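=== RUN LOG ===
request id: a7f3
mode: sequence -> structure
chains: 1
length: 482
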Amino acid sequence: MPDERISGKLIGAIVAVGSLAFIGILTETVMTVLFPQLMREFNVDTATVQWITTIYLLVVAATMPLSSYLNRRFKHRTLFLAAVALAVLGSLIMIVGHAFPVILIARVIQGMGSGVATPLMINIILEQSPKSKVGRLMGVGSLVITVAPAIGPTVGGAVSSILPWRAIFVIVIPIILLVSLPVGLKCVEQHRPTEEARLNSLQFVSIVLALCGLVMFLNQAGVAVSAAVSGGSATVSAVFAVVSLIVGLGALLFFGWSSKRSFSPLIRLGWLRDPMVLLHLIAYMLLPIVGIGFGYVITNVAQLSLGTSAFLSGALVLPGALIGAFFAPVGGMLHDRFGPVRPILGAFFAAICGPILLLVFSMRLTPVTLAGFYFIFGFGYSLGFSNIMTNALRNIAPQFMPDGNAVFNTCLQFGGAAGTALFSTILSVAQAGAGEEGGATFRHATAVGGSWTFATMIGIVAIAICCLIAAFRIGAKRNSRP
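=== RESULT ===
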């Protein structure tokens, strides 16, 4: 049928907006492979340098709750141009910045750009795709989320081996201005009227405080444990961690309470009363802890335990990235054809085999086995991840899809930020008191930290699988009713 065809302008819009989100996530994960180099350049430790990644993901997560409001209030093209401007400005500051706080400011600006671009891409797909092709196009959109984090370390290692690391941001600016911008101006269209939506600033502040508080809790709890293990004073960090947790949970509870009573909430949350959708959301938040955190773990274990170069450590992630690039759209096609249960559960039962094998061989890993076991995880993760959100949003009313998109993408980015903070903390604790980087003791300690990390990953993926199984059982009971 003609109305089931995918238009060229829709593909162009997805490419234009998706490329911005792709570049944002790519440059975020490019930095993970550079951490040892950045630690030396800026004279900071592991717990501090990871904020280059964590603050970016945190800002993205804090920006995404605005996406429902922005989608209703502004035209797609306006949001696209704002994302372009933020991406270019952030890259320019990264090029000229030579102090660690300036680098963090640049990451904040870049995070705002990605926080606008990623949900905009998903909203365009949901609003403008033929119904029979939604899963397929969501799979294409998932390439941004799954492939960019995977190939980022490879790109970072390759570029930094022949050029200064700032050259990465010199390269992306022409791509944005000469490819993304003109394609977007031609293809991004508006298929629905805007609304006179109002921004609830109090709710926005509360959700930002909640996200910041929870991530700061993970970071400072790790700093406190690391200090205690190495024999230092952990009191200040422990107090800060507890305060951060109280602030984060309190702000989150206030946000939920306020949203129920607000005439114009920042995000409408009534659809979360459906336990099947809520279980999908929990799984969608847990899995990026592993999926995004893996890039950090692989590259740092490779360099700090196995003694590989930055280029090789980044290249280890490439096979898993390439398989992800192929299987994300395939996963969407399987969802459209067979429904959600078998494509999603089969994918993640395959994915969990990766960290299981990494744990089993954690103390005798080689670069080849590290890349091979990550390949297994990347295959399953990319095959099933986007289908979780696709299936959940199909079970909520169309008028609430922008709200669902905002919540799912916020949880995705929070999961990524939490994963980086959590895994860097585990490695820091293992490395505490192990001597100087490069020594045999330090390498062994990093390998031990890697084994702890892989065990944590197995637990997280297992919990997500249990949530999905429970959700599908609820759906099956509903479908069996007369």
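=== NOTES ===
The mean pLDDT is 83.
The first helix runs from residue 8 to 33.
=== END ===
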